[in-house]
TrEMBL record:
Residue ranges occupied by any TonB C-terminal domain in the UniProt entry: 125-219
Name of the protein: Energy transducer TonB
Acyltransferase is among the record's keywords: no
Signal peptide (residue range): none
Keywords: Cell inner membrane, Cell membrane, Membrane, Protein transport, Transmembrane, Transmembrane helix, Transport
Localisation per UniProt entry: Cell inner membrane
Topology with respect to the bilayer: Single-pass membrane protein
Region called Disordered, residue ranges: 52-79, 147-219
Transmembrane segments: 13-36
Similarity field: Belongs to the TonB family.
GO cellular component: plasma membrane
Major place of residence: membrane
């Protein structure tokens, strides 16, 4: 600061000296007959001395604030692990366990052997005589005749090795039980067959299927 004040005082003294010289020059000019206006302009220009104060030195910027260091993250204490594991208890068995069950070995089934083909072709039972004469209109049940009931009875006969009927089965009823019953009764009495034969040509049990139609005779 003392140096700056000293420099300002020196500048002022220099300015005063210059102003005095200017006054001398102006007086001389007036004496020599210079125009008054010229002297006035010079005096005005010279007397207005712009004295600039020296610029103050810029203060250095303040240092940046110190950043506080972030606190360290919390560290959890290590978990204590008990590695001492108790050994498993050993149980002593006095009785020995039963033996494992024996799995039976299943033998594969024996191959099926087809029977040998018959030496003689089997034959079915063959009716003797005329089957249409086994049941006739003369066998019509009286009640069904009075009520004028008609129908067709389907049947299956079982024929024994002697050619006689051993069983009669109704396969298709006529709608009138008395007509169906009359059918089987007459077939058992009258039907005769040549018995069926097997592959050896021997008589065997066979069957016969047919139908009987019951129609009221016209006079």
């Amino acid at each position: 600061m003392a140096y700056a004040d000293q420099q300002m005082s020196g500048n002022k003294i220099t300015a005063l000296i210059i102003v005095a010289l200017i006054h001398v020059v102006v007086g001389y000019a007036l004496v020599t007959g210079l125009a008054y206006s010229a002297a006035k302009q010079i005096l005005k220009k010279v007397t207005t001395v712009d004295i600039k104060e020296p610029e103050k030195p810029k203060e250095p910027p303040p240092p940046p604030p110190k950043q506080e260091a972030a606190p360290p993250p919390p560290v959890a204490p290590p978990v204590r692990i008990d590695v001492a594991v108790a050994p498993p208890a050993i149980e002593t068995v006095q009785v020995a366990p039963p033996p494992a069950p024996v799995v039976p070995v299943i033998a594969p089934p024996a191959p099926v052997i087809a029977p040998p083909p018959p030496r003689i072709p089997p034959k079915a039972a063959v009716p003797k005589g005329r089957p249409a004469e086994w049941v006739t209109t003369n066998d019509y049940p009286s009640r069904a005749l009075r009520e004028e009931r008609e129908g067709t009875t389907g049947f299956r006969l079982t024929v024994g090795p002697d050619g006689k009927v051993t069983n009669c089965e109704i396969t298709s009823p006529s709608g009138s039980p008395d007509l169906d019953q009359a059918t089987c009764d007459n077939l058992r009495r009258r039907a005769r067959f040549t018995p069926a034969t097997d592959g050896e040509g021997q008589p065997t049990t066979g069957s016969y299927v047919n139908r009987t139609r019951w129609v009221i005779p016209k006079d």
